[in-house]
């Protein structure tokens, strides 16, 4: 059901790979709520994924490739998007994460530091680049909204989440720091959403992911939040209903983040 919360708004969605992607589900919800969107991902991801199918479902939305570590690519993305929209942009979803050490099976205590630099660059500093590009081009409308996807491993230890925990911590720091400056300049809000473990293509690649899912489900009073639920939450953050929410890390995890233990887990431990 559509409430037209984003009627007349225009946004860029980073990171939609396939139907399991949170970015994919968010793009669909934004379109259903009345938004016009531009889709973007790294050129290699565009070749691997099915983004043209999503573009068609979103009113033939333009697909513009961009390497988020390349400022020229990002400048081209924002300039083409503004040309397509005929004006400035209202919202951006940053759904980007990649870990070479996880891919290569390196443990946290044995990480390759060159790979780690790339992980931090792609997964966290890319948000700074996106915001910097929008800032330099004055591309975002007043009271615009930027949301990046995070995970509670930024605050707590999940051993197999590896270096991505550091990347998410840096991502949340960039959100606060750039969020301050963008709030002062343009009333632009910048937030992260710390989502439940979600069975996406990227998430499923983390060692022990099924254990993550089952434990979080048992520890969450409401259960795990799914990709469609996260998409709904992002829509509210892009809307005018959340104008004074900024620089926050917002937990969207069924209560997991503030639950010490549940009766279900106690019973499992006592067996």
Q: In a few lines, what is going on in this structure?
A:
With 271 residues, the protein is an alpha/beta fold. The chain is built from 10 helices and 6 strands. The relative contact order is 0.14.
Written account of the structure:
With 271 residues, this protein is of the alpha/beta class. The protein has a single domain, classed as Rossmann fold (3-Layer(aba) Sandwich), CATH 3.40.50.720. Helix content is 45%, strand content 14%. The protein contains ten helices and six strands; from the N terminus they run βαβαααβααβαβααβα. Strands 2-1-3-4-5-6 form a six-stranded parallel sheet, sandwiched between helices. The chain starts with 9 loop residues before the first strand and ends with a helix.
- Helical fraction: 40-55%
In sequence order, what are the helices and strands, one letter per element?
A: EHEHHHEHHEHEHHEH
**Poorly predicted ranges (pLDDT <50, ≥5 residues)?**
none
SSE class? alpha/beta
- Rounded mean pLDDT is 95
Question: Cα distance, first to last residue?
Answer: 44 Å
The assigned CATH architecture is 3-Layer(aba) Sandwich
Give the overall silhouette.
globular
CATH superfamily: NAD(P)-binding Rossmann-like Domain
| Total count of helical runs of at least 4 residues | 10
Query: How would a crystallographer describe the biggest sheet?
Result: 6 strands, parallel
In terms of DSSP E residues, the strand content is 5-15%
Q: Per CATH, what is the topology?
A: Rossmann fold
| Total E-strand runs | 6
Radius of gyration: 18 Å
The domain tally reads: 1
Indicate the multimeric state: single chain
Strand order of the largest sheet: 2-1-3-4-5-6
């Amino acid at each position: 059901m559509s409430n037209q919360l984003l009627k007349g708004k225009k946004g860029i969605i980073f990171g939609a790979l396939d139907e399991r992607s949170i970015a994919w589900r968010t793009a669909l919800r934004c379109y259903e709520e009345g938004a016009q969107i531009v889709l973007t991902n790294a050129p290699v991801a565009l070749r691997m994924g099915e983004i043209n199918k999503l573009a068609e479902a979103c009113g033939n939305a333009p697909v513009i490739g961009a390497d988020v570590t390349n400022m020229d690519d990002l400048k081209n993305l924002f300039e083409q998007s503004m040309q397509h929209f005929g004006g400035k942009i209202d919202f951006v979803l940053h759904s980007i994460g990649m870990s070479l050490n996880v891919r290569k099976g390196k443990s946290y205590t044995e990480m390759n530091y060159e790979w780690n630099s790339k992980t931090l660059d792609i997964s966290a500093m890319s948000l700074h680049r996106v915001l910097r590009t929008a800032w330099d081009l004055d591309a975002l409308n007043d009271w615009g909204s930027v949301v990046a996807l995070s995970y509670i491993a930024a605050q707590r230890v999940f051993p197999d989440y590896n270096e991505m925990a550091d990347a998410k911590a840096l991502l949340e720091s960039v959100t606060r720091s750039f969020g301050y400056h963008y709030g002062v300049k343009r009333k632009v809000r910048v937030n992260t959403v710390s989502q439940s473990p979600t069975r996406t293509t990227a998430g499923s690649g983390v060692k022990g992911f099924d254990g993550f899912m089952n434990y979080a489900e048992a520890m969450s009073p409401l259960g795990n939040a799914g990709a469609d639920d996260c998409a709904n939450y992002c829509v509210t953050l892009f809307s005018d209903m959340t104008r004074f929410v900024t620089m926050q890390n917002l937990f969207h995890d069924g209560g997991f983040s503030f639950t010490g233990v549940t009766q279900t887990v106690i019973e499992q431990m006592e067996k």
